[in-house]
Every structure is written in C-alpha cells, then in structure tokens.
C-alpha cells in the first residue's frame, strides 16, 4: 500500500473538532501515513505548523514523503504518544518547560492502533493472511517481538491476555494451541500462528472476520503496551494544550474508548481532584478544566464504511481545554 492510498478515518469529523486555523500549531501524535496531518496542514495554511509523532520509523518516512510539499511547516519526530510533553518541550513549543508545562499547541490528534502500512507489510508480523516473522512491534528497534513475548508467558498468562485485550472466545484452548505451536515448531511465523488458532475455533462463516483476528489483536496490543501508552498520554496531554485548544482521539477498541471516556468525563467535571466530602467555596470549586465536544463517540457513516472498512470500529471523542482549573 502506498501512502497516498491510505484513507484517514473520520477526517471531516476530526477537522470539525479541531477547527484548524491559519497560523495555528497542531500536533498529530500518531502521524502514521500523514493523512490527517495533510488535512490539518491544508486547513491551517499558509503558515500553520504541524508536529507529527510516530513510534514507527517507516511511518515517518511515508509521512515525510506525503507532507514534503509543506516544507518547514512540518516537523516529524520519532517518539511515543506517552512522551508528547517532552517532545513538544524539546521543540520549544511549551512556554514553561516540561515540569510546569503551559500550552502549547492549538490542537492535538491521536488516531490509535495500527496503520495500513503496518498491516499490509507481512515482514512486520501483523498480518495473518501472509507469512511473516512473529514480530508485531510498531517500533522494530524497541521492546520484545511477539515471539519472545509469547515465549515468556505461561499458558494461563496468555489466556488472560487473549481474554482481556481480544475478548477471545475459548481463550484457554487458543492459548494452549499457541504455546504448543511455539514449543513444537522449529520455525514459526504469522501464517502458522493463524492456522493453529483457526484450527481450535469454529469454522469461519461467510462475511465474518478471520478466526485469528482477536488473538492477533490481543497479542499486538500487549506487545506494544498500547493501553499503558494511552493511559499515560491521557494523564498528561492537558499540559501541552493552549487554552481553547482541542484534543481529538480515535480509538478502535472498547478498552481504549473506555479510558478516553473516563478521563474526558473527569476533566470536564468541576474540581475533579477535590477531596470528597469537603465543603468548597465557589472560588475553590472554580470551573472545569475542559468541556466535552462529544457526549457520545462519533462513528463512521454508511458512505465512509463502504469506502473504508477499517472505519467500522472507529470511535472519535473530542475535548476542549478551557484553561487553568481554578477561577481567577
Ligand atoms: C492508525 S495509524 C495513523 C494513521 C494516520 N492518522 C493517517 O492518517 O495516516 C496509527 C499510527 O500510530 C502509531 N502509533 C500507535 N501507537 C503509538 C504510540 N503509542 N506512540 C507513537 N505512535 C504510535 C502507529 O505506529 C501508526 O503509524
């Protein structure tokens, strides 16, 4: 798949939430193949800036090609979602430095999960359709490949991973099949793993996804610590937003969406960190740090679903940062 063939998910909805403006500074924390970033740069022209972050060096090469026409309006950084404060601070975009960060950028985007480039490259180990190494790391230079991760887990631990991240039916049976495959085979690959998983699950009915889909998703989420990254990002992102700036987050998994929903609800409450039961004055209560831009997550409509099946499980939530918590 080429970078230009990639279709960004829920693009008009993201632009609506982020309201890019001429001269604004935006950060796409998961720049991928640069689809959303390109639209943000177009909408903030002629002089808006975009910082694009990705943990996958190959994604940055693809994004670099797609965004080359915007010249020095674009800065691409190899890094992780959870480190957004440090990355933007190193670029001089935070007024008060990393410890006491005061915003910041005019809009922040996170489009989580894997890119079509990763899924469609068998050598990256995400694909169960074509054989590839059991890797699945978004950053191939960090952490453990799936083969080592799986080898280090007991059957019971693997069952838990499959249940928690994949809601895998018959998880103990699938875990046993995977462990046996790893123990008995001289050479392992993604196609072999998919085959042994499918062999212990009911046959695929027409129109349904491959039986190994859930197991692959669960292993990928664990290998890349995707929920841990998101949690740490959600704890800190407010520090990089200028007052009035928004965050838009696209998730593809109910556990991710739950984390976003809870954190957004908390930030949009009055005095979320006040000790329970203490009477507070109006000034102490202040006003909420943020306001919800989406009460319910936005989903792809029929036209987008027909063009881009990947959008099927996408959920988009938005939040606007209002400024410091306590009223002046
Ligand atoms: C769904 S794709 C983004 C597609 C992009 N919005 C576009 O329009 O081309 C997700 C990207 O986020 C990256 N990614 C996922 N989790 C990340 C994390 N914790 N830190 C940095 N990058 C991450 C992946 O490597 C992948 O390239």
Question: How would you portray this structure in words?
Answer:
This protein is of the alpha/beta class and 328 residues long. It folds into two domains: 3-117 and 227-321, Vaccinia Virus protein VP39 (Rossmann fold, 3-Layer(aba) Sandwich); 140-223, Putative methyltransferase TM0872, insert domain (DNA polymerase, domain 1, Orthogonal Bundle). It has helices at residues 11-18, 35-43, 57-67, 84-90, 116-119, 146-151, 155-166, 171-184, 190-199, 213-223, 226-236, 254-267, 282-285, 302-307, and strands at residues 25-28, 49-54, 74-78, 105-111, 241-251, 290-292, 315-321. The chain has a seven-stranded mixed beta sheet, sandwiched between helices. α11 (226-236) runs parallel beside α12. The radius of gyration is 21 Å and the shape is globular. The termini are far apart. It binds S-adenosylmethionine (SAM).
Fraction of residues in β-strands: 5-15%
Q: What do we call the CATH homologous superfamily of the largest domain?
A: Vaccinia Virus protein VP39
Instruction: For the largest sheet, list the strands in their spatial order.
Output: 3-2-1-4-5-7-6
Runs in which pLDDT lies below 50 for 5 or more consecutive residues are none
Mean pLDDT across the residues is 91
- In oligomeric terms, what are we looking at? single chain
The bound ligands are: S-adenosylmethionine
CATH class designation of the largest domain: Alpha Beta
The CATH topology of the largest domain corresponds to Rossmann fold
Overall strand count: 7
| SSE order, one letter for each helix or strand | HEHEHEHEHHHHHHHEHHEHE
Q: Return Rg in Å.
A: 21 Å
Number of helical segments with 4 or more residues: 14
């Amino acid at each position: 798949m080429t970078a230009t063939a990639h279709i960004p998910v829920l693009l008009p909805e993201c632009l609506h939430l982020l309201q890019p403006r001429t001269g604004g500074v935006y950060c796409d924390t998961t720049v991928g193949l640069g689809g959303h970033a390109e639209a943000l740069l177009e909408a903030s022209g002629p002089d808006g800036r975009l910082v694009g972050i990705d943990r996958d060096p190959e994604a940055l090469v693809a994004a670099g090609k797609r965004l080359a026409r915007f010249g020095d309006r674009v800065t691409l950084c190899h890094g992780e979602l959870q480190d957004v404060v440090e990355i933007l601070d190193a670029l001089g975009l935070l007024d008060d430095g990393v410890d006491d960060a005061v915003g910041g950028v005019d809009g922040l985007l996170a489009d989580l999960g894997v890119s079509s480039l990763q899924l469609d490259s068998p050598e990256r180990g995400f694909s169960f359709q074509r054989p590839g190494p059991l890797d699945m790391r978004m950053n191939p230079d960090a952490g453990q490949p799936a083969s080592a991760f799986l080898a280090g887990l007991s059957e019971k631990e693997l069952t838990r991973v499959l249940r928690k991240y994949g809601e895998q039916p018959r998880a103990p049976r699938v875990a046993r099949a995977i462990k046996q495959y790893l123990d008995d085979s001289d050479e392992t690959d993604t196609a072999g793993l998919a085959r042994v998983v499918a062999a212990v699950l009911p046959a695929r009915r027409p129109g349904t996804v491959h039986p190994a889909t859930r197991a692959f998703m669960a292993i990928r989420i664990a290998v890349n610590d995707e929920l841990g990254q998101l949690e740490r990002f959600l704890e800190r992102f407010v520090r990089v937003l200028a007052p009035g700036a928004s965050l838009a987050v696209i998730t593809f998994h109910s556990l991710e969406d739950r984390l976003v929903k809870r954190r957004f609800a908390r930030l949009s409450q009055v005095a979320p960190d006040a000790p329970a039961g203490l009477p507070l004055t109006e000034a102490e209560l202040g006003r909420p740090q943020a306001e919800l831009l989406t009460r319910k997550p936005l989903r792809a409509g029929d036209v987008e679903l027909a063009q881009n099946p990947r959008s099927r499980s996408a959920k988009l939530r938005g939040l606007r940062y209002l400024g410091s918590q306590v009223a002046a």
